[in-house]
Specification:
Distance between the termini: 25 Å
Number of domains: 1
Order of helices and strands: EEHHH
Structural class: mainly alpha
Number of helices: 3
Helix content: 40-55%
Strand order of the largest sheet: 1-2
Shape: globular
Oligomer: single chain
Length: about 80
Amino acid sequence: MNLHEPVRPAWRCAACDEEWPCWHRRRELTLACQGSRVTLALMLAEYFSEAAADRPDIPASVLYLRFLGWLRIPQ
């Protein structure tokens, strides 16, 4: 069981209370996708869609950066 899961509908991390996906979960998801940026992006796009439905008060641009924007940063 992973402790760094989102608490919905707030989309905060259950373990560290950071915005989800937190740094820990980003690392775990990257490892789980075995370096495939496409697989990771598709998975995060689904989370982005769910978060947008749960949090219409947060602009889509902010959610995009949170869920998908970090993928462009070299790791």
